[in-house]
Structure of DNA-binding MarR family transcriptional regulator:
Amino acid sequence: MGHYSKDSFSPDQSVGFAINKARNILIAEMDAALKDLDINSQQMGVVLAMHRGMATTPFELAKLLAIDTGLMTRMLDKLEGKGLLARSRSVEDRRVVNLSLTDEGEEVANRIPEVAPVVLNNRLKHFTKAEFKELQRLLFKFVAD
């Protein structure tokens, strides 16, 4: 079943347009809120994923966050340059790079929950609990494989 057709498609009324606009708004607000931590919203995803043990290699992070490996390498370079993470070669397989947060990276990760919920709650302030749950359900359905 198609939801769009050549005749009915209007870019500014498409789901893709709305998702992209919502993403851009959220990124701008989150980046501003994270400024004091000296990271941006994309870097936040990397730091939190590592902090919570969701990924330990660049490949795992790229897959989890749906980011191409080139962009992931550049983000890891920046985070390493800021002293937030360290890279090391796997003893079992030298092709594998393992990542770990430094003490400073762990400190930043621990501060993110003080910042991110404020931004998200402000953006969601006009949603009822039921609307929030439905939005969450639909977004996870949309991104499911």
About this structure: The helical segments are 15-34, 41-51, 58-65, 69-81, 103-123, 129-143. The mean pLDDT is 94. The beta strands are 85-89, 97-101. Residues 124 and 132 are 7 Å apart (CA to CA).
